[in-house]
Write a structure and sequence with these properties.
By secondary structure, this protein is α+β, with helices and mostly antiparallel strands. It has two domains: about 90 residues, Elongation Factor Tu (Ef-tu), domain 3 (Beta Barrel); about 140 residues, Threonyl-tRNA Synthetase, Chain A, domain 2 (2-Layer Sandwich). The protein is about 20% helix and about 40% strand. It has three helices and 15 strands. The strands form four sheets. It has a six-stranded antiparallel β-barrel. The chain has a four-stranded antiparallel sheet with strand order 9-10-15-14. It has a three-stranded antiparallel sheet with strand order 11-12-13. A hairpin with a 6-residue loop joins strand 9 and strand 10. The chain starts with a strand and ends with a strand. The relative contact order is 0.16. The protein binds zinc ion. The site of zinc ion has 7 residues, from helix 1.
Length: about 240
């Protein structure tokens, strides 16, 4: 089977698309639907999956969970009515409110990271972030020695608040690792080239496969919940109100 084309990689504002059914399979009590292309974000990168509806003239499918395995995106859920057949054209509709909340939380994680770099805190970002509504956080390798945690919390919050008020545009660019050197804080070794880089304004880029707000103003607000050591790492908990 060919891989599923990930339309959200090129445009994360899209909430609808046309797709073709590659496979439809019953699985336990549920049905798994695989498509040639999708706007549904599968769980990954610390970000939860989208939910929504897939429909055609022949049926309506409720998407309850989305997973990616071996290049194929599997939409897991149930048929509310009718059925689909292999090769059939269907329409995908993502739940926009859920997507927006997850995009705000995820983008806020990048913004916290930007603020920490701007403050000159010598921590290295760790990819193990958690961008779920129940207590999101970002993780760093580094030390809290000599740092006033309360002041740091206030300083990060202030920088985030200012950036949200200014409202930088968020864009997708594809670039080589050389081009990334001057604008990306950390560059993973296993990145394909050219890599997808999310640009917050013109001078802060993050190689990332997640979904993001189109403008930092859409995050609305970021508060820092806590900064604490977690094993050998530092965890910065934040909230998006
Ligand atoms: Zn991201």
């Amino acid at each position: 089977m060919p891989s599923t084309k990930l339309l959200y990689l090129e445009n994360f504002s899209l909430l609808e698309c046309e797709s073709k059914v590659l496979e439809i399979l019953p699985e336990n009590e549920k049905v798994t639907l695989t498509l040639d292309q999708t706007i549904f974000y599968p769980q990954g990168g610390g970000q939860p999956y989208d939910t929504g509806i897939i429909e055609s003239a022949n049926g309506k499918f409720i998407v309850e969970e989305v997973r990616s395995t071996d290049g194929l995106v599997r939409h897991i859920g149930k048929l509310e009515n009718g059925n689909f057949t292999k090769g059939e054209e269907v329409k995908c509709l993502v739940d926009g409110a859920r997507r927006m909340l997850h995009s705000r939380i995820h983008s806020a994680g990048h913004l916290v990271d930007w603020a920490i770099e701007k403050l000159g805190i010598p921590w290295t970002p760790d990819p193990r972030g958690y961008h779920y509504p129940n207590g999101p956080y970002v993780t760093y390798n580094g030390s809290l020695d000599g740092l006033d945690k309360e002041k740091l919390k206030a300083d990060i919050e202030q920088l985030c608040t200012e950036a949200i008020a200014k409202g930088r545009e968020v864009n997708i660019l594809f670039m080589t690792k050389d081009e990334m050197q001057s604008i990306c804080r950390s560059i993973p070794n296993n990145l394909p080239e050219p890599a997808r880089v999310i640009m917050f304004g013109s001078d802060f880029g993050v190689p990332c496969g997640g979904t993001h707000v189109a403008n930092l103003s859409e995050i609305k607000s970021v508060t820092i919940r806590k900064i604490k050591p977690e094993g050998e790492n530092i965890r910065v908990g934040y909230d998006v109100l």
